[in-house]
Inverse folding.
């Protein structure tokens, strides 16, 4: 048994063929390759099939509310910056229910990684459109097809200057490993959109579809060029995979808040500062 | 010669932007430093400029006035004509009004002193902006309190704005002061107050500051919140002292983020607080439920204001007790405190953090606009302190966050502290914290989460009784901000029939309270429409509440009003 493997057999709630299975293997491999310790790693997740990921990894887990993995993960990081912190959920969770948190956490720039399993459909609630569903996709709530413009996570993330914005695909495990590894190692708020096919409810965006529609980011792409990154992100006919954007000059939220290496659970009560505060109201 | 009691009520009214808050802050500081007993409260409209706002300052020489507002005004200083119109209903036989005669509605006002506030402001500073410093001077002149303290206050308050502005303010103050002295002499106004040297060192605290001090004393080291009146002040207080006290302060994008960040931090070992008002709290409710499910402590301050919806954003109400009591779906254990004085605010905030950590539950502190804005002194030696008990344990390999136990509580470890893994799950979970759909586990976990309730109940603060409560036939009950007014009114009525009882913790209710109330007629005083605490007493103790004295206009009870309400009981 390797680190991050569950110590006992677990009944995994995903459907056979689900894109989450390869991602589970990839994530554990990446954490091991990076030499992270399960006890010093936290995965916060929301609700949905993707959000069950940490249930199947031997790691500190905060499986919270729908849409709220990012604020939870940020709270963890601010309370103990020594931890490796990952927020992980699906497209409905992070781009829909919790969209506001994605925007504003990117502005703050805490050192954490956001992994979004993007299957372009709602799985656990059985087949409704997600924010990333393609226009025209027929589903139980829009029987004539999706009538709203899909959400573009990469363009949005770049627009708020999330300092690491990347996309990968579980059908190419080597690529996915490389990208997720770079995201976790990146010192700052890293967003990774991961194409993770849903074999039950999304008959449109299948493994085959992703294979046909995705292509690697051109070799001459300079991720530090924000405008070029934005242009790539705006491509919707063919979807570029790789690091679209990277900004190494942003300061961490933890540093701006003057957070020290001492986790808050070890904080000593600042008696003299407290007395000083009291004296100020005399 | 005008005779005043040893309890003076001064009201200063004006438009938002005219600086009456500076007058209040200056007067409170100066009068307290001079050794007077003081109390101040304010009422204001939801706007940045214009409208009509007022501050009330009570002044006494014996001991500090109770933390209660009065309807009576002894000296009214109106900075503009709308202020006088706004406050005229409170002008009585004994009120001396200081205002510009021109344009003022002075009909029926017996004692009106034409006070050229704007002319003095223009003469001193070349702008009506200096009216508040003139008014400050007039007040001090009338009271016969030295203006030296005021000069020092203004020099400090306006230092940022440059020497010119400082000097103009001081000149305006002097003009007002001379006018006030002269008027007091000409009109024979004498205020029979004698200062008490010992009061000089008292702390001067509004409810917001007291709650902030309590949070610091309780070991609070993390706050994430979204601004909403009147709860914002606690966030601003902690932000102001964050660096030197090592508190992490995060302004959230919304209240949902705030409570989830708080829970994330708490999961990692912080003592986390969120502050908001009813509407913002509505958005946090799912997070409260999460706290209950994952047994992760969080302290939630709700600064109440009148609802529903946006309601009266700058006014006061105690309408959110039921909200706190029932917030969050599903069933879980919680505690709710409701302080009535700065000392109680400091005490209950510390208790809130300790209770949240000790019982691994969400804990509420309920205040309201009136309480948060009202200022009163506290002897520095009377600041309540509790030891900060560390409830976090170091984990070992194989650690189970929800290990079943006799009292329902499992040792709480945090990630990164020890070799174990800390798994929490909003789904029903097994002892290791992982998702389960087993009915047996569900039953065991529900029982586990509720098993702590008995101990929490036995630990609940007893209410504070005053004025021959034991012998009284009628128990008049208050909670939260009504403590001061009830204490004063019961004292003033001086009836052997009436006893007062104040709850600073409103849930759970200590079972011993039932004995206290045995055989008594029960009257409950609340700043809401339906009597939410009365309902809770009935539900929790099975007692009969004979009368509810309620007010939901958006204003607090005045002493006179409550006397009128309770006279029939005396």
């Amino acid at each position: 048994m390797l680190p991050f493997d569950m110590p006992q057999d677990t009944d995994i709630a995903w459907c056979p063929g689900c894109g989450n299975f390869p991602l589970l293997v990839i994530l554990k491999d990446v954490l091991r390759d990076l030499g992270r310790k399960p006890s010093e790693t936290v995965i916060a997740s929301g609700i949905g099939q993707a959000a069950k990921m940490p249930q199947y990894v031997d790691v500190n887990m905060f499986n919270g509310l729908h849409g709220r993995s990012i604020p939870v993960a940020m709270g963890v990081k601010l309370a103990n910056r020594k931890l490796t912190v990952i927020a992980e959920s699906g497209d409905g969770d992070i781009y829909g229910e919790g969209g506001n948190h994605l925007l504003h956490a990117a502005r703050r720039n805490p050192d954490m990684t956001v992994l979004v399993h993007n299957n372009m459909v709602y799985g656990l609630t059985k087949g409704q459109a997600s924010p990333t569903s393609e226009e025209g996709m027929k589903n139980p709530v829009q029987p004539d097809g999706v009538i709203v413009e899909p959400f573009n996570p990469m363009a949005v993330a770049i627009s708020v200057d999330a300092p690491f914005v990347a996309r990968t695909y579980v059908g190419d495990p080597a690529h996915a490993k490389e990208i997720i590894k770079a995201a976790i190692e990146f010192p700052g708020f890293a967003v990774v959109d991961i194409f993770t096919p849903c074999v039950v409810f999304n008959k449109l965006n299948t493994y085959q579809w992703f294979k046909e529609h995705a292509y690697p980011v051109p070799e001459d792409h300079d991720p530090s060029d924000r405008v070029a990154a934005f242009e790539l992100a705006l491509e919707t006919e063919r979807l570029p995979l790789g690091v679209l954007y990277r900004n190494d000059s942003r300061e961490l939220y933890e540093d701006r808040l003057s957070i020290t290496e001492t986790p808050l659970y070890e904080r000593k009560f600042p008696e003299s500062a407290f007395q000083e505060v009291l004296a100020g109201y005399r | 010669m005008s005779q005043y009691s040893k309890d003076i009520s001064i009201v200063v009214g004006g438009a938002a932007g005219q600086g009456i808050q500076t007058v209040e802050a200056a007067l409170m500081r100066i009068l307290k430093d001079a050794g007077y007993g003081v109390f101040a409260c304010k009422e204001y409209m939801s706007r940045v400029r214009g409208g009509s706002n007022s501050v009330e300052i009570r002044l006494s020489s014996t001991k500090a006035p109770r933390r209660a507002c009065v309807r009576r005004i002894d000296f009214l200083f109106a900075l503009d004509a709308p202020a006088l119109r706004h406050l005229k209903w409170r002008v009585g036989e004994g009120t001396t009004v200081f205002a510009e005669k021109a344009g003022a509605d002075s009909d029926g006002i017996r004692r009106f002193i034409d006070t050229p506030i704007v002319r003095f402001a223009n003469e001193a500073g070349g702008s009506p902006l200096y009216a508040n410093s003139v008014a400050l001077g007039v007040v001090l002149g009338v009271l016969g309190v030295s203006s030296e303290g005021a000069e020092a206050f203004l020099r400090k308050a306006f230092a940022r704005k440059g020497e010119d502005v400082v000097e103009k303010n001081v000149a305006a103050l002097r003009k007002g002061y001379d006018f006030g002295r002269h008027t007091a002499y000409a009109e024979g106004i004498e205020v029979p107050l004698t200062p008490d040297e010992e009061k000089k060192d008292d702390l001067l605290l509004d409810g917001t500051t007291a709650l902030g001090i309590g949070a610091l004393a309780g070991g609070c080291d993390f706050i994430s919140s979204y601004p909403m009146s009147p709860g914002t002040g606690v966030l601003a207080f902690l932000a102001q002292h964050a660096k030197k006290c090592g508190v992490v302060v995060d302004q959230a994008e919304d209240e949902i983020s705030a409570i989830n960040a708080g829970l994330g931090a708490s999961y990692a070992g912080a003592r986390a607080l969120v502050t908001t008002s009813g509407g913002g709290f509505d958005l946090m409710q799912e997070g409260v439920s999460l706290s209950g499910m994952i047994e992760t402590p969080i302290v939630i301050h709700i600064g109440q204001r009148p609802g529903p919806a946006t309601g009266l954003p700058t006014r006061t109400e105690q309408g959110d007790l039921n909200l706190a009591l029932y917030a969050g779906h599903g069933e879980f254990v919680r505690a709710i405190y409701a302080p009535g004085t700065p000392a109680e605010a400091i005490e209950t905030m510390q208790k809130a953090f300790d209770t949240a950590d000790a019982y691994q539950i969400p804990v509420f502190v309920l205040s309201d606009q009136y309480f948060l804005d009202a200022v009163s002194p506290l002897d520095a030696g009377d600041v309540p302190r509790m030891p900060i008990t560390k409830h976090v344990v170091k984990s070992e390999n194989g650690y189970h966050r929800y290990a079943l136990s006799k009292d329902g509580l499992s040792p709480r470890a945090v990630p990164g502290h020890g070799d174990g893994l800390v798994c929490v799950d909003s789904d029903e979970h097994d002892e290791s914290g992982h998702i389960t759909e087993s009915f047996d586990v569900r039953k065991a976990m529900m029982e586990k989460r509720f098993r702590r309730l008995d101990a929490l109940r036995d630990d609940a603060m007893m209410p504070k009784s005053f004025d021959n409560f034991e012998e009284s036939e009628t128990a008049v009950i208050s909670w939260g901000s009504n403590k001061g007014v009830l204490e004063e009114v019961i004292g003033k009525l001086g009836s052997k029939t009436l006893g007062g009882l104040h709850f600073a913790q409103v849930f759970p209710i200590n079972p011993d309270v039932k004995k206290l109330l045995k055989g008594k007629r029960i009257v409950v005083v609340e700043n809401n429409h339906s009597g939410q605490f009365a309902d809770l007493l009935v539900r929790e103790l099975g007692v009969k509440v004979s009368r509810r004295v309620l007010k939901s206009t958006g204003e607090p009870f005045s002493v006179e009003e409550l006397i009128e309400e309770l006279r029939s009981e005396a």
